[in-house]
């Protein structure tokens, strides 16, 4: 596709003659911006109010003041109708006979269905040269005198073309708005009207209504004297133009009525909660709203979950060398954090969690439970209080549950949602959308669950509620704690016993924590089992620091001469300590100090000092116990003397990225040769790591592993696509700097 901005610079303005019909705030501001940016060669304005047109000329908003619509649009290749939405049909009928043959006609109205109906009634069809538009910008001021060339800068403009709209004209219109500084989006007409009814029209209606209600009270306007800032902020939009808003409500009638009904029902629920003293319900609604509003504020400042994941580009820049010294505590264990929210929500009573990982993955789980009606306070510096609703107390969410980057969340949710009375849909980001879900959907179907996946067993997952599940005896084809946990969670809802046998031991947090919540899970060799129909009881949880996050520093200290680092309160569950076992076998100096048990999980402080590492054949039984730590273990292998061979690790290919290939590619960028095999890798230690740029492919652990590599690289290392480090280790950069790693962060994009 031709770049419209290119044509702007290489072949002059986008349009020769732009006619703006209606010189109010929006029409005037557009004319002014277009003139200032040279987006049209000539800008002509027309308005019923002659004074406004003259004023526009004086203010330099337009090049020419037309006396009639006919003269204004004669030979215009762009006509912008910027009149109130209710006047649209009359104006369109008036301009119809005078339009040039190659014209592009657009508007700036707040409702699009009404504009398209007016177009159809005047032209008998929706011509391909009519492209509706709506700049989401405005002010309580109106009229040409308030026109500002920067009114649209950093604002959104929604265009609602039809499937048959002229694509070249659409591109030019996008370039025009882009040239005014706006971000241009396109969407169907009906969707636009629904979205605006909810996000703009309803709030205006409520503001008008509230101010009117209070103004009509007996003690009349006196009441406003006592109104504080909250009232002022909340009702600011009630000062908007009444005529314009009366137009908008009548024009977007159906969509507005639907959203008013929805709001009325929710308001009635709150009223009832107050009347009946249902504080729990109030807390639930308010904390869910607060979380949503906080999320929205972050989104506006460009840091939200979705924004971070999809738009913000984060690059790590590392200077070679550095040291590793100090005493740190890495954030809470991701696996335990997910499960603490899940089991807390499904239990009776209150669960208080300390040390919760405030990373994007576990926050996605937390939000999903809020979406299903669970009241969750926090997180606040790792503290979360969950008001459990019991195994059968979840409510249907209003839309799909978005789980971001988290495979653990999606697979565990699949199990616990298969047994609910309502339908759910689970979605995630680009990486999650590529990950295999058949491994959970297939055995769940054997239990009686009804689950649809996209092609190849990929997300989204659509889970049908109201099914009767029956216990299953399942021998897993792969060593996966996620699959095991998924089936045990489904087993809570199943008739009879669910038994899951693993080909090799995998992390056992689900079993330990269920027992901790008073739900008995048995173990018979390689088989974990439970019976459906019991209940969970909430209680306190202390989440240890995540050994998977500590692993980056275990390797960092091991490979850096002079290093001496203590990592506090690290979870050393025997099913997670593969990384310690492997590093020790390579010759690492790791001392496990102050071993203790906290809430059913073994915890210790780890002291690690530099040591000369040697290459090893990694024992296959350690692979599931170190499954998330291989990216950084590969860096240890490069720094070791001799050959390291990994086999039996094909699971690494279906993690957040294909971790075998992506690590091999990244190492190659640094000049390190490796031999990739189907289920592992062979690394010759002692190769020099040069400077280079590594693509982490959005995989948090790849990004952190190469950050560690810089300690021993001969040149600087740049790592791209690092935003997802926030999924598991939000303060990684700070802690890395604290110990002496020379890391800088560069961010770009929205
Ligand atoms: C996890 C299990 C592992 C691990 C993941 C967390 C869990 O996945 O890689 O980061 O919390 O159960 P698999 O079970 O797919 O190996």
Automatic annotation (TrEMBL):
Active site, renumbered: 628 (proton acceptor)
Binding residues for phosphoenolpyruvate: 334, 407, 435, 482, 659, 701
EC assignment: 2.5.1.19
Family matches, as Pfam families: EPSP_synthase (PF00275), PDH_C (PF20463), PDH_N (PF02153)
Gene3D superfamilies in UniProt: 6-phosphogluconate dehydrogenase C-terminal like domain, Enolpyruvate transferase domain, NAD(P)-binding Rossmann-like Domain
Residues that hold 3-phosphoshikimate according to the record: 334-335, 339, 480, 482, 628, 655
A biological process term (GO) from this entry: chorismate biosynthetic process
Domain of life: Bacteria
SUPFAM superfamilies named in the record: 6-phosphogluconate dehydrogenase C-terminal domain-like, EPT/RTPC-like, NAD(P)-binding Rossmann-fold domains
One of the record's GO molecular function terms: NAD+ binding
Broad EC category: transferase
Pathway: Metabolic intermediate biosynthesis; chorismate biosynthesis; chorismate from D-erythrose 4-phosphate and phosphoenolpyruvate: step 6/7; Amino-acid biosynthesis; L-tyrosine biosynthesis; (4-hydroxyphenyl)pyruvate from prephenate (NAD(+) route): step 1/1
Catalysed reaction, written as an equation: 3-phosphoshikimate + phosphoenolpyruvate = 5-O-(1-carboxyvinyl)-3-phosphoshikimate + phosphate; prephenate + NAD(+) = 3-(4-hydroxyphenyl)pyruvate + CO2 + NADH
Key words, A-Z: Amino-acid biosynthesis, Aromatic amino acid biosynthesis, Cytoplasm, NAD, Oxidoreductase, Transferase, Tyrosine biosynthesis
Self-association state and partner proteins as the record states: Monomer.
NCBIfam families per the UniProt record, alphabetical: aroA (TIGR01356), PRK14806.1 (NF011381)
Family: Belongs to the EPSP synthase family. Belongs to the prephenate/arogenate dehydrogenase family.
Function: Catalyzes the transfer of the enolpyruvyl moiety of phosphoenolpyruvate (PEP) to the 5-hydroxyl of shikimate-3-phosphate (S3P) to produce enolpyruvyl shikimate-3-phosphate and inorganic phosphate.
Cited PANTHER family: AROM/DEHYDROQUINATE SYNTHASE (PTHR21090), PENTAFUNCTIONAL AROM POLYPEPTIDE (PTHR21090:SF5)
Record-given protein name: 3-phosphoshikimate 1-carboxyvinyltransferase
Taxonomy of the source species: Bacteria, Pseudomonadati, Pseudomonadota, Gammaproteobacteria, Pseudomonadales
